[in-house]
Structure formats: C-alpha cells, structure tokens
Request: fold
Amino acid sequence: MSATLRFDNIGKVFPGVRALDGVSFDVNAGEVHGLMGENGAGKSTLLKILGGEYQPDSGRVLIDENEVHFASAAASIASGIAVIHQELQYVPDLTVAENLLLGALPNRLGWVNKRAAKAHVRERLAAMGVDLDPNAKLRKLSIAQRQMVEICKALLRNARVIALDEPTSSLSHRETEVLFKLVRDLKADNRALIYISHRMDEIYELCDACTIFRDGRKIASHLTLADVPRDTLVQEMVGREISDIYNYRARPLGETRFAVNGVQGDALSAPVSFDVKRGEILGFFGLVGAGRSELMHLVYGADKKKDGTITLDGQPIKIRSTGEAIRHGIVLCPEDRKEEGIVAIATVAENINISCRRHYLRGGLFLDRKKEAQTAERFIQLLKIKTPSRKQRIRFLSGGNQQKAILSRWLAEPDLKVVILDEPTRGIDVGAKHEIYNVIYQLAERGCAIVMISSELPEVLGVSDRIIVMRQGRIAGELPRGKANEQAVLSLALPQADTVAQAA
Reply:
C-alpha cells in the first residue's frame, strides 16, 4: 500500500538553528504514527510545514505520491490536512460554535445563520461524544475544554490527514478516553494520523508505528512497537539512558514554612486549609475542575479570596496581589504558559528577567543590562533552554523551552521561600522532565516549600513527599508518600459513582 503521507528529506533552517535536517518517513492510511523527541527536536516545526505555516527549505511533502506545496494554512486545510497544535489557536471572545466553524459559518445573503451553526455543532459534538456548550464563550472555558474545541475543530473538517501535537496535555481522564475513541474511529475510517506525545503510555496504547527525532534529525523509525522496550525509545530521544525519570531524593523536612487556613473563593465548595514544611514537596492531584489551580490563584493573589488567612514562617501575611506575593518570596508558575506565563513579543532574556530586574536597578532608575544578560545566560545553560541566543523572541521557542524560561524567571528570584508549580512539565519531554525534577529537588534542599499541581498521577506519586487530593472544589483527602498509590489517590479524586464504574 502506498503511503498516504510522505516526508522526503525535509530541511528547515531558522537564523542560528537548523530545525530539521533531512527528515524522511511515511504515514500510511489507517495508521496512527507516533512522533517523539525532546522539546526543540523539530516535531512542531514539521507539523507547521504540513499545516502550511512554514515552507521547507529542502525536500518534498507528498500525499498519495503527489508532491504538494502549501503556501498558507488555508491551502493545507483545502488539501484535506488538519493540524492540532500544542499551543491552542482560538478566538477567546467567540462561542464554541463560532470557533468550530470559523471560516465556514453557515450564512444567508451574507448574514451568519447562528441558529443553524449552533444546531450543526450540537449535533456533531453529540455524535463525537463530546460534552461542550455551543453557546459558551471560549474565554469562559477551562484549558481542557479549549483543547477539546481545537480537537473537534479539526475533526469537523473531515480531513484525510490529521496531526495532533500533545492533544491530552490538559485533558481530564474522561476527555482523554473520548479522544482515544475518536482517534481509533478515525484510524478505522482509513485516515492517516500523526500523534505527538511525551507520554509513553499513550504512544504504546494508540500508535502502530513511531518515529524518533533528536536535534532536528530522524534518529529511528519503528514500524511496530510490539517488541520495542520503553527504555529504547527514551535513549533514542535523549541520547542517554535515564533509568528513573523521577529520581526521588529524600531530605530532612523543617518546620512549617507556609500555611493556608480557611481560604474561600467562588471556585471552592468549602473552606480549604493546608500547610507545607521547609524542604517539602507537596503534590496536589485532582481531576480537571477539581479547583486546584483556582485555589492557588486565590493563595497567590491572582484572584480575590472571600476569607481565610495565610502564614509564612509563623507570621500572618496579607497577599492582595501577585506583586505582594512575589515580594514575600512566593512565586507561581501558571498552568497556561501562553495566556499567563510568557510575554510572547519579548525575548528569552526579557522573559527570564521580567520579575527579578527590580533588583538590577542602579540608583533606582537605570537597568544593569550586564547583570540581566548574565542571569539569562546562566539559566539558559542551567535548564538547557534550546534557543539560538538570549535575544530570540520567546514565541519562536518550543512549548517546553518556553516553560523552562518561565521556571527560570522564578529561579532567578534571590529570596525564594514558596514555589507553586502548576503543571510544570505539561508538554515537556522525558529528558527535560528529568532536569526539572532535579531543579525542584534542589529548591527543596535549599529549604523552599514546594507546591506542585499535576494531572499526571505517576508524576505526583514519583516526586511528592505528601499528596493532597481535591474533588469538586474541596480537599478530599491527604496521603503521605508511603501510603500513596494510584488506587488510593484515584479513590479520593473520583466521585463514588465514577469509582464504581471504573472498577466494573
């Protein structure tokens, strides 16, 4: 059978970096082809070539043995290609229906037929098993719901070739199951699918074949995964062996450093209290909508709390804004790096220094550019941020490298006391995760109190000293490391009916 999609010796160069170097592989109709590699390995660049956002500097893209050239995203879509990017692309002030049908809204005499659009979208979403309100504005939806909108947008186009870049990075357990069913249905319908993920379980569960990228080159293609050990894929991706990605390091814990007592807010169904000791890594787990991120926004001063007190090193403190939190040595790495983390038009150096530059003022008026440059270079090296230079605009970096820059921003703060990490490794490769976990351990060993929110249960279990589980806007339970396992955590996270159904 001839390949539905073929990449033939694809090359792409940006100023200071070779993003792709002679990449060739095939994706057959009726196949899910996994694509793996570290952040910055070239995976997303390849998808942008397929989607018409970039043009290759060398090589060919062929569909059904015919060479194609996409001068724009519209040309790619018209050829039956759908690309779902890791960084979501939506119009926040439009509804779900309007986003899904953007560019193809039903109209009559030039006027959009909103009733017809909503009815069509409602019917198609129901057929796909997706629970979304066609009338809801995207701005009001959670990140997980926005991600499902992006996925559904591609599926509504009835594309022959579909590429998904980290599609489950923000999805709940239920939404991931819906996505997996959609992928399998598309495969059965003889579509060709490219599936990018850093989650090994997903690759082995969904993919028929897999190609590994490293530094813009194809390292290996496996036509079947049945006999390929996971360690082999990891070693091909990172170029070295990583025996234990979490590499948990026990450490002595000090006195309570950070305490939250009776915090209340709109997203919480009951007052919430918790504390973290010096040197402790406190994991927060819960399903999407459990209230974890909303709780941290209240604690950090990003949202206004209705009640509750916060204590730092035994002293009550008031946090009425994020600026006050930072001045107390409390920082937060947000879940949504695109909306709340990066300044897209600024450079990597500016993004790293954006908070700590207040310490680099001379005479209160002039910035010490030399210190800023030294800080940026230090963290680019420390976290191995892949960028041509510190002066590169951060929007041109991969999602994982943007995340490292945000983490660097807070590591550059001279007097850190509490570090809140909301999905710190979302969309990040296994090698970068290993590096970030080591940074977290180093912070804890310095006496910082670490709060880590993660939707990846193995990550929470692997890194945390203690785990708090949230459910429906309240704390459902707490588990010490020695008693925490998947069954115990999920039994707290899932409503009783879900627990029974899953067990059955």
About this structure: Residues 497-504 have pLDDT under 50 and may be disordered.
